[in-house]
UniProtKB/TrEMBL annotation:
The keyword Cytoplasm does not apply. This is GNAT family N-acetyltransferase. The keyword Amino-acid biosynthesis does not apply. Residues 30-180 form the N-acetyltransferase domain.
């Protein structure tokens, strides 16, 4: 593991107009578990980890692992909170990190009661700006199952370019072969900072 990467000063929180976006902390497991349980039926078709609702202890253990990965800079999980109410609205982050190329994948899920309000569009815009300015990203990707219209809309609304479709690229949660849509933004083409 690169010492340079470990020594990077990566902010653990930032804000958008309506959201506080921050790295997980000890004790966040209960609220994440509550959001997952509320949203499990909507998450199940797209998220392999959502085949069954976790216990609060499992959610806390997962978040503690996410804290370690954040500190290692191997995966940057982020939680999304409504700035006014403090309610957890979802989770996002930067995954599949390639530090040498400055390439990151933005992943996300939204709590069911918070869908249709523009939260994920706002979060993706803020995370994109944060990745470019703070992490010197050269390439950002959003990947989604071609059948996941909500996720596809987020990428399109955030002005990510559809690069292509990886046909029958992997098994979907339901066991069928899925086509994966790959959207991206690239420094010098879609963004200038």
């Amino acid at each position: 593991m690169s010492t340079d990467r470990l020594m990077m000063d990566v902010p653990e929180s930032f804000e958008s107009e309506r959201l506080l976006i921050r790295a997980p902390r000890r004790g966040d497991g209960a609220m994440v578990n509550e959001a997952i349980k509320e949203s499990i039926e909507e998450l199940r078709p797209w998220m392999p980890w959502a085949d069954s609702a976790p216990t609060p202890e499992e959610s806390e253990a997962e978040l503690r692992g996410a804290i370690i990965r954040y500190m290692e800079r191997s995966d940057l999980r982020l939680l999304l909170f409504d700035r006014t109410s403090g309610k957890l609205v979802g989770s996002s982050g930067l995954h599949r990190i390639n530090w040498s190329a400055g390439a990151f994948e933005i992943g996300y899920w939204l709590r069911t009661s918070c869908t249709g309000q523009g939260h994920m569009h706002e979060a993706v815009q803020a995370i994109t700006e944060w990745a470019v300015t703070e992490l010197k990203a050269n390439r950002l990707e959003i990947r989604c199952d071609s059948r996941n219209t909500a996720s596809k809309r987020v990428a399109e609304r955030a002005d990510f370019t559809l690069e292509g479709v990886l046909r029958q690229q992997e098994r979907a949660v339901d066991g069928t072969l899925r086509d994966t849509m790959v959207f991206s933004k690239v420094r010098g083409i879609e963004f200038q900072y």
